[in-house]
Each structure stands twice: as C-alpha cells, then as structure tokens.
C-alpha cells in the first residue's frame, strides 16, 4: 500500500510553489524577475527570483513534475515552515552560486537547481529515518550530476525548454542540499545527547 502525504500540511506547500511559478509565467514576469547577469548588479533580487521563472510552459511543466515527484518521495519529511525555509534558502544559494561561479550563464530560469538540493536533503532524511531507498536515491542523484558534468547538458531537453539546461545550477543546488543536511546532523546529535 502506497501511503501518500495527502494531509494539508504536506500538500499545500508544493501546490503553492507550482501555483506561484504558474502565475509568474501567466503574467510574463520574466522581463522583471529572471536572472539576467547584465542587470543583476542593479536589480539584485533577480539572483533569488530567477529560480521561480521559466523559459516556457514546457519548462514549467517539467519543473512542476519534479516538485510532485519530490513530494511523493519526501512530502512527509518537511513541515510547512521547513519547506518554505528550504525553498527560500536553496533559491538564494543557487542564485548566488550561479552569480559567483558561472560567469557564462547570462540568463537563468527554473526550479531545477534548487530541486536538486531538495532531493539531496530528502535522500539524507530518508537515510536518517532508516529508509534504505534513501541510500539509492542519494547515490543516484550524484551519479546523475557527475554524468551531466562529463556529458554536458541534454540537447533534447534544451530544445524542449527553449534554453540550455544549466547543469551547473543542478550541482550548485545539490551542494546546497548537503549544506541544509547539516541541520539533520545537528538534530541527530541533539537527540543523542
């Protein structure tokens, strides 16, 4: 029997995230909010808001599927407060990482960087609560990231989303997920002592 996290506190945050991104796409907020390196110094908020913008509806749909997939895997691991804190932290982390470490990325949009961080944190939380699938997921995400760094971005996905896939953002987001995981170690250490 599959036990889906259908309680309001688990279902509302991912639905709100998808709705927010959909609304921003619907009103075409990209000119004001996407990460655009040429104006970030004057409009610093784009480092953060670019994560919630998308290049087209297919891009948004793929990211929404990612949000749903993560909810299915780890929805019960986060309170509403934690979900919001994780999304905000990873959006800022990924944006700053792109700004500082990826000078070739001029325009960046999408949730994929921060979603990689959410997956890494969720896999480590699975491991913490004794779910063996967490080990497989953790190894799998890092194999995917290494593969992307070796092979380069998917041309097919890039054509679908009308933009180059920012594999650097995936790696930056995953490292952000590791940084978030230190809270799991602190909680575990606090529970032991």
TrEMBL record:
<feature type="transmembrane region" description="Helical">
    <location>
        <begin position="12"/>
        <end position="33"/>
    </location>
</feature>
<feature type="transmembrane region" description="Helical">
    <location>
        <begin position="53"/>
        <end position="73"/>
    </location>
</feature>
<dbReference type="InterPro" id="IPR023826">
    <property type="entry name" value="Rhom-like_SP_proteobac"/>
</dbReference>
<feature type="transmembrane region" description="Helical">
    <location>
        <begin position="105"/>
        <end position="124"/>
    </location>
</feature>
<keyword id="KW-0812">Transmembrane</keyword>
<feature type="transmembrane region" description="Helical">
    <location>
        <begin position="167"/>
        <end position="186"/>
    </location>
</feature>
<feature type="domain" description="Peptidase S54 rhomboid">
    <location>
        <begin position="42"/>
        <end position="185"/>
    </location>
</feature>
<keyword id="KW-0472">Membrane</keyword>
<feature type="transmembrane region" description="Helical">
    <location>
        <begin position="80"/>
        <end position="99"/>
    </location>
</feature>
<keyword id="KW-1133">Transmembrane helix</keyword>
<protein>
    <recommendedName>
        <fullName>Peptidase S54 rhomboid domain-containing protein</fullName>
    </recommendedName>
</protein>
<dbReference type="Pfam" id="PF01694">
    <property type="entry name" value="Rhomboid"/>
</dbReference>
<dbReference type="InterPro" id="IPR022764">
    <property type="entry name" value="Peptidase_S54_rhomboid_dom"/>
</dbReference>
<dbReference type="InterPro" id="IPR035952">
    <property type="entry name" value="Rhomboid-like_sf"/>
</dbReference>
